[in-house]
Amino acid sequence: MGRLKQKYEKEIRKSLAAEFRIDNSLAIPKITKVVVNMGVGEASKNKEVLESTKKDLAAITGQMASVRNAKVSVASFGIRRGMPVGLKVTLRGERMYSFLDKLFSINLPRLRDFRGLSVKSFDKYGNYTLGLIEHSVFPEIDLAKVQPRGLEITIVTNTNNVDMSKRLLELLGMPFEKKEK
Predict the structure, then answer these.
(1) What is the full DSSP assignment across the chain?
(2) What is the pLDDT of residues 72-97, one digit of tens each?
(3) Which residues are in the Large ribosomal subunit protein uL5 C-terminal domain (predicted)?
């Protein structure tokens, strides 16, 4: 069992149940999945870009990415329906917890001028989305072989309450920005 999952099972569940006065163990907030997306718009012109980006995303997440195709044609972008425009990985279980542990403790602190993540990135369902300008902050990526790309990470929770989701992520170690006094 991973370090973050063990911490959730032994400490965080009890803390959340007490803090929010939850009697039903199934109602305690938890992370259900993590979705990692990466855009590869120029893959239609160069197939090697798609393959190298797929390998990078697999190295980052530990799971092969699925190719997302365009649903509509957009002439101004040079995109036709069915062209590959992105990659997506959905993580659950052990891989999800190990990815989040690595993200919170290693990758985010490596960002230059990192002062914490914004607390305004929650949607109304309690899910948190963050974007990284470069995927090269992950240690698995060889900087000499890749062109930096942005990626989006969405953390999906089982609660519709933003306050519960925020508290869950705080207890898991997500580095939120500190409020200035």
Answers:
(1) --HHHHHIIIIIHHHHHHHTT---GGGS--EEEEEEEEE-GGGGT-HHHHHHHHHHHHHHHSSPPEEEE-SS-BGGGTB-TT-EEEEEEEE-HHHHHHHHHHIIIIIGGGSTT---B-TT-B-TTS-EEEEES-GGGSTTS-TTT-----EEEEEEES-S-HHHHHHHHHHHT--BPPPP-
(2) 888 887 788 888 888 999 999 999 99
(3) 84-176
